[in-house]
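Hi V.,

You were right to ask for the full record rather than a summary. Here it is.
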Amino acid sequence: MQIHDYGMILAFFLLVLIPAPFIGRYLYRAMEGQPTLLSPLLRPLENLCYRVAGVDSQTEQSWKTYSLALLAFTLVSLLALFAILVLQGLLPLNPQQVPGLEWSLAFNTAVSFVTNTNWQAYSGEAALSYFSQMVGLGVQNFVSPAVGLAVLVVLCRGIARRSSNSVGNFWVDLTRATLYGLLPLCLVLALFLVWQGVPQTFTEYVQARTLLGADQSIPLGPVASQIAIKQLGTNGGGFFGVNSAHPFENPTAWSNLFELASIILIPAALIFTFGHYVKDLRQSRALLACMLIIFTIGLGVTLYAEHQPNPTLASLPVEQVGSMEGKESRFGVAASALWAVTTTAASNGSVNAMHDSFSALGGMVTMLNMMLGEVIFGGVGAGLYGMLLFVLIAVFLAGLMIGRTPEYLGKKLEAGEVRLLVATLLVMPLGVLVMAALAISLPGPAASVSNPGAHGFSQLLYAYTSGAANNGSAFAGFGANTPYHNLMIALAMLIGRFGYILPVLAIAGSLAAKKQVPVGSNSFPTHGPLFVTLLTLTILLVGGLTFLPSLALGPIAEHFAMFQGF
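Predicted structure:
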C-alpha cells in the first residue's frame, strides 16, 4: 500500500465518525418531534403531509397496529412499482422508448427496491426509463430506508419506555425519517456530485462516433439525485449497470471518497441516536466499538488478500502491486477493497469494482459480512436493530452463565422475547442455505453459474446471501435474470426483510409494556470491554458455525486450489 492509500482510509473514518454523534442527536430530536435546526422550514411541510393523508400525528399505535400499517404500505409500494416497471413503455420521460420489463424481472425488481435490497438483474441505462428510475426506484430509495429507520426507532422506544402499550405512529415515523433525515442530506450530496461531474439531466442519450468510426450511445439521465440517495439510504442500486465503477456515477477521487463515506454515515449516526433514547451514550460507544472491531478485521483481511499477486502470475518479470483484475485503475486496489468491505458491511450493494474478480479470501469477506446479518453498521435502521438483536442474545447468554434472569437496560428478557430472538437466527440460514441448496441442486437454475468448481458455487451462494441480507451486490458472472432466480431471490429478499422486522416490532411491543427494573450491582454491565468482547464473539460464532461449511465449499476451497495451481 502507498501513503495515499493510508490517507484515504483515514479520511474515510474521519468523514464518518466525526459527524456521526451530531447527526445521531439530530435524528433523535427529529424522530421525537423536538425542535431542530430545520424545523422552521420542514414542520409546515410535515403537517401538510399529515393533513393530506388524514393522519392524526398525536395518536400512537400498538406494535400490532404499527405492523399492519407497515405491511399495508409495503404492499401498496410493491404493486405500484411493479405496475410502473411493466408499463414503462407507455409512461412519460422515456426518450429512449424503452419497453416494459418482463413480469418476473419486474416483480424481482419491485421486491428488491421495496425491501431496501436494490438487487438488479438488469442494466439500468438499457432497461429503464427516466420515469422508472425517478418515480419508481427513486421514491423507494427514500421510503424503504425510512421504513427501516422507523422500525429501529420503535425498538429504541420499546427499550426506553416503561409500562407503555404504544410504540409510536408508523405514518409519523415514516414522514419524519424521510423529511428530516434523508432529504436534507441527499440534497447536499447530490449538489456535491453534480459539482464533481455526475449528470443530472432529462436529455436523450448522446450519439457519438468513436475514433475507430463506430457509433456509440452515451447514456445520460437524472443520475446525481439517484446516486445520493442510493448511498445515504444504503440502497446501492446504480443508475448504470456497472454501478459506481461507471465514470458518470463516480467520476473523481473526491466523489469516490464522499460516496463511500455516505454509505455508513447514517447507520453510524443511528448508534448515537440509540444512546439518546436510552439516555446512556456509553451503550452507543460499546456498539460502535464492536462494529469497528469486526469491520477492521474484515478490511485488514481484504486489503492483504487483494494486494497479493495471483500465484500463477508471480513469476512474471513485472512489479507486483496486487490484483487489478476487475478493478478501476482510477481507484486502485485499496479504494476498491475498502468499498467492497463497506458496502457489504452495510446493506448497500453498490460497487466500484467487480466482486467476482476479487481473490478468494477477499470475496469470502464480502460474503461473510452479509452472512452475519449485515449488522456491522448495516442498513439505515436495519443494521442497528439487527445488532440490538445480537445484543439481546449476548445478554441472554450472559444470564445463563451467571445464573440470573437476563436483563438489558432494566428490561428483563423472558421466554416470549427469547423465542422471537431464536426465530430471527433462522432467517439467514433459511434465506441463504436452503434457497441456495435448492438452486444448486436443480439443473436449470444451476446453469446460471458461469464458472466451474468452487468459484461457481461462490457465485450462486453470493447471490442468495445478497438477497437474504438485503444487500444487492453480486458476483457478476452469475446469470440471475431467469424466472426461477427472479422469483426465488425475491422470496429470499422478503424473508430477509420481514423475518427481522416483524419479530423486532413484537419484541419492542413486549419490552415497552414491561416495568423497568433498577440496575443493581449484580446486573451485567453492557457498556464495558467485557461485553464488547462477548458481543463480538457471539456475532462471529453464530455466523461462523452457521455458514462455515458453505464457505469451505466455496471461497476457502478456491483459495487452497489456487495455491495448488488449479
